[in-house]
Amino acid sequence: MGKLLISSTYLMLILSCVESCFLLRSLYVIVPEIIPAGYQVAKVETVGCVAKSVQLTVKDPSFTIKSNGAVVALTSVSVGEGGRTFSVSARDNSGLERKMEVHLVRSTMPKRHRRGQGSLNRSKRPACRFPTSVVENYEGNYPILLEKLVSEPSASHDMYFTIEGEGVDTYPTGVFSIDRDTGALFLLKAVDREEFPAYNFVVRAFDRHTNVELEEKFPLRVIVDDVNDNAPEFVGPLHFTVPEHCSAGTVVGVVSATDRDRIYTNHVKIKYTLVSGSDMFTIHPETGVITTTTNTLDRELKDNHVVTVKIQDMNGAPNGLFATSTATIALSDINDNPPAFMKSSYNVTVQEDESEKLLLRIPVQDKDLINTSNWMSKFVITKGNENGNFRIVTDPQTNEGLLYISKPLDYEKTNDVQLQITAQNVASLNGSSATWQSIPVNVNVEKVDAGSVSFGLLGIMTMLCPVVLLLMLFLLLAFFCLTKREKLQLNEPGNTGRIPLISNIDVPGDSAVRN
């Protein structure tokens, strides 16, 4: 039985769906260890080219290429274990040149006995054959011839071929088929690299007469070459925060993107650009890091900035696929605005004997973020309160300063107090040259006369108390007189000179003296 040879002479590698004339990208050919002069190594085929308009050249002086694409050895060539590689170029009338790499692989199979001359000696094959490549999503006509398995002419009629594995009888099925008589391997439909990047199956050769398998199962791998059919996609949120008035060059955040095409190729090399917002921000074209270009970002003027980010593969080449999205950059607040008083000064009056009384509400304005420590006010009496007669607190609802008299003042000692009130924040000032503001508060003290009557509730009660006592005594006397009236009535005295009573009057002590 003649030995089985694997020829990639008919390998059809689809490189582009839009080119009208192209070469195969690479060709693997198994050859003898010693290639004799005149031996046809392979036949280079161009696709979509007019034969007379294409000039073919070979870069190895040991070989020549004929007008029909046949590569022939000019001299005897020895092929080592590492193989031998040379290139073939095709140039058309427009001057456009395309190249193909031809890889010569030395055969390692021993000679076999012809049928009837002894038993078949099987030899181990390499673990894996050089892979065959196909381009994903090809839009041409199917089926497409990928490779042809041929034997020596004297034995070609003695065997047939089968294949099994991925793309044939296991998922995804119906992708490849083989002509059992010629060993021609066909691609039946378009394949998607992102769905299935490679197919592994085995080729088997059988004796046509006895159906006995002639060789070990021969592994074959078909790699799906990538085309740039996936636009890059944004990954993760596009919302960032940076402090206002930060210095130029401050990192805002990182825009992340991914591409489903093949890694380590320009198909996934993404370039980042800003379509809008480049007056205040910039983005690194390779890393996607957004940084500031100014230190004038002011939250009080504009608290959010929206920029448009563009991501484009092929490193930003015009033919690269791209996507755009908006990123929101929020400015966080810093305490760059001190509280400002609404008036430049205040006057207030207090009586000398008053205490724990609210004297004044002092409103302020603050441009910083409301209900934060940058906005909340803190008031301090910085002058005039050496004796501790006053205190000031902050109204948490209105952010006003509330000035109280906490201890009575003495008019004789002072009738006028000059206070200085300073408005601060809970947080320290940051990123601003401004300072805390202060205003004067003039407190006028009124004298209270010692003999003067206060007509408050207590004063009225004090004034009415004697009147009430007199009224109560009068009522008691009237009651007594009414209840004892009969006992006090007198009879006619007549001529006796006596004053008779209608009834006896009980007198404590000695009995009444009788006349």
Automatic annotation (TrEMBL):
Gene3D superfamilies given in the database record: Cadherins
Q: Which GO terms describe its molecular function?
A: beta-catenin binding; cadherin binding; calcium ion binding
- How does the record say this protein sits in the membrane? Single-pass membrane protein
Provide the Cadherin domain boundaries: 126-234, 234-341, 342-455
The cross-references to SMART domains, in alphabetical order and at most eight, read: CA, Cadherin_pro
Q: Where in the cell is it found?
A: Cell membrane; Membrane
Q: InterPro entries, alphabetically?
A: Cadherin, Cadherin-like_dom, Cadherin-like_sf, Cadherin_CS, Cadherin_pro_dom
Q: How far does the signal peptide extend, from start to end residue?
A: 1-20
Main localisation, per the record? membrane
Q: Which UniProt keywords apply?
A: Calcium, Cell adhesion, Cell membrane, Glycoprotein, Membrane, Metal-binding, Repeat, Signal, Transmembrane, Transmembrane helix
GO CC terms of this entry: adherens junction; catenin complex
Q: Which residues form a coiled coil?
A: none
Give the source's domain of life in one word. Answer: Eukaryota
Question: Where does the chain cross the membrane?
Answer: 455-482
A single GO BP:
calcium-dependent cell-cell adhesion via plasma membrane cell adhesion molecules
Please name the PANTHER family in this protein's record.
Answer: CADHERIN DOMAIN-CONTAINING PROTEIN, CADHERIN-23
Task: Write the protein's name.
Answer: Cadherin domain-containing protein
The source organism is Astatotilapia calliptera
Q: What phylogenetic lineage does the species belong to?
A: Eukaryota, Metazoa, Chordata, Craniata, Vertebrata
